[in-house]
Amino acid sequence: MPDDRPDIPDSNPSSVDLDEAGTVDIDAAKGGRSSLLASWQLPAIVLSVGAIAAAIVFHGRSPEPEVDPGVELREARIAFERGDLAETGRRLGVVEAMLGGHPGLLGDYHLLVADHRARSASPLESAPSDLAEQVVQAYERALADGAELDPERRLQLAFARKSMGRTEEALVGLDEAQEWLEGLDDRVRLRRVRTITQGLRQGQVMAMVEAGEPPARIRGELARLMDGSLGVEMEAWAVGLDARLRLEAGDVDGLARTLLFQMRRIEGMEAAADDPMVSVDWASLWVLLGHAHREEHLLPGRAMECYETAIERLEATGTTRAEALMSLADLEITAARAEHRARAGQVGAPGHPCVDAPDVRQIGRAHV
Questions:
Q1: What value does the mean pLDDT take over residues 36-61?
Q2: Cis amide linkage into residue 123, ω under 30° from 0
Q3: In what helix (H) or strand (E) does residue 54 lie, and over which residues does it extend?
Q4: DSSP readout, 332-355?
Q5: pTM (whole model) above 0.70
Q6: Quick one: average pLDDT of 113-126?
Q7: H or E segment at 108?
Q8: What percent of the chain has pLDDT over 70?
Q9: Of 139, 239, 265, 294, which residue has the fewest beta carbons closer than 10 angstroms?
Q10: Bridge partners of 18?
């Protein structure tokens, strides 16, 4: 009988072989699966590697976050306020590279640059001139860019100008600062600013003396100095120079009385200060008082007493001692000549010791 059953497809893949006994060749079957797996896994691996490489390339080429110069400038100010000058300088460098497109930041930028330089060169009143100049340039640039300087910055600018040698501009700022500090009742800083101001004005006066300018002009500048609240030593120096300038100009009316009054006032100031470091050149003042008695009152006796006080009691040294000795010797020689003429019965009145004495008013001026 013919077999009417349909043919059943072979369930074994063609790649699977039967051995002679009709059993499945297992190794061959495994080899077929491995070949199939390899055929689809390799493209997947290649795609994965390509995707990773593309991601790396994309990430490397992506633009960095844009830096906001305004934010950087604020961060620089914060760093400055906490005293981190290195971080301040670094951030200022970042901002500087972007200023071209942000002109509105110029004022604040140069103000912070100036503050940074000022603190780096502190104390500005004794800073080297080249560092002080950098501070001045930065503050002046900030002003040109529309920034405003508060009183503290104006004081620092005055200090920097002082260190640069721009004395007149420095004095304007220092005078303004004194009014501000008086309002704050900041006595410590006020005293320091006054001392610096007086030192600058003293230097101006001495420069005029050395240049040989007219006594009237020098006295005018000296009066500005004496208008302030001077310390004992500078008060004594100013009083002595003023007296010498009056002697030089022949303005001796009332000089002896005025000088004596000022000497008593200085003596009171010295006692009130109670400071062993205070040093007043009393010998020089006594020599000047002797000149005043000789020139104004024609009193050789009083003048001699003053010179002797300077030499013997105050133990004058240097040019002050030389001035006192020469003045005393001149009076003694003149007095001896007058006495000799009187004894010889010479006709005519003997010369007055003070009138005949050589003019020694210029001696010691450089010392003052």
A1: 51
A2: yes
A3: helix 26-61
A4: HHHHHHHHHHHHTT-SSPPPPHHH
A5: no
A6: 95
A7: helix 106-120
A8: 76
A9: 265
A10: 24
